[in-house]
């Protein structure tokens, strides 16, 4: 019996050594793989001052750790509203090229648009979105029509977290799975995060690279957080407690995703990207959503940046952002101006995917910048924003930023030196009139390229609406 016991113990030791050796080889291979997994997380309406690493009273330990151990993007820009940012992310183009400047329940992208999901799918990736789509709110306009193998969450915009209903109207029932409307029990933040975790675990078993896009509905109105999250947000002002609880709830689910990567041995070879879709809101009306229990307008916080969501001031378009990939990127802070349009060119460049004819990216490959290299293209280019309903626009050249405000056919200029005045307190348009004029011409050139890819049926819908608006009233 003793001999049999020692033989079994010896066999177990050999098995354990082989297992550990296999795990080491697997991790080393993952670190060297040319096809990293991609986890892309987007918060909704999260302000500059709503993450812990920017000094917020809101506790976001998992986001903070990803920033601390990864690459913090100190000047990362998006659109001033949600749908435009999502269009830019998935195409590498400014949203206004598609005629889009506002949240849209109409289809935004032409059917044949070469999206980030399509590019990665063609490169052998398993692709999934779980969260908020908002690029066309009918099921037949859903994510699976644009390169995603699987889809889940809200086809429209932010939803009531418990009943999953969008605003009153034809798109109120919007919760879906694989582009089919469904009913599902649970808090939206938990459901979105759990879907991402399951996808990560399934992808590991299949042994294929994955792209999972997780655009949370948090921290968008309406709010209705469980008591345990409210209890954990007692450190903030009561007016912001629901907001803080929602942000901390989302942060915890991000932690669950990272834990799933660790648990399945995929962490080293997973590129994680996180940012907010626009700046914090000055308070959206929660009464537009059915059966809303938590009433009132709850604000985000963009301190010390000027402005809010919907505006092209820094507070509306400069957001918390980070990249984390343990195998390839060393911890650092990047202060070069980067933009959401850069993700598609960058990820395609990383995977050696050639830009498809007709893609016409406005963004550039920022991978050298993320690695800490000096890239003259990033330093010298101009960035462009078209504001909500074309009522404002902005252009950045180096440290100079021009803003054009349009109201009732009249234009007003503002010019800021962001190096000396990052919070946009001093308008230099009069003192630097020649520069303001030159930048205005550059802005006009950018605007002249807009609406070149507006879907035909959407274009017709807009033209009819414009004709009706212009017709004499009885």
Characterize the structure shown.
With 474 residues, the protein is α/β, with parallel strands linked by helices. It has helices at 2-32, 61-68, 82-91, 116-122, 188-206, 227-231, 241-263, 314-317, 343-350, 367-370, 376-380, 433-447, 456-470, and strands at 37-43, 71-77, 126-132, 150-154, 175-177, 180-181, 210-215, 270-276, 318-319, 321-324, 332-339, 382-386, 392-397, 400-407, 410-417. Strands 1, 2, 3, 4, 5, 6, 7, 8, 9, 10 and 11 form an eleven-stranded mixed β-sheet that branches. A four-stranded antiparallel β-sheet has the order 12-13-14-15, with helices on one face. Residues 15-32 and 463-474 have low confidence and may be disordered.
Tag the structure with descriptive keywords.
4-stranded antiparallel beta sheet; 13 helices; 15 strands; about 475 residues; alpha/beta; globular; 11-stranded mixed beta sheet
Distance between the termini: 102 Å
Strand segment tally:
15
Q: Biggest sheet, in brief?
A: 11 strands, mixed
Total helical segments: 13
Q: What structural category arises from helix and sheet content? A: alpha/beta
Rg of Cα set: 23 Å
Strand content: 15-25%
Give the proportion of residues in helices: 25-40%
Query: Could you say which overall geometry the principal axes of the C-alpha atoms support?
Result: globular
What are the secondary-structure elements, in order, as H or E? Answer: HEHEHHEEEEHEHHEHEEEHHHEEEEHH
**Average of per-residue pLDDT values:** 90
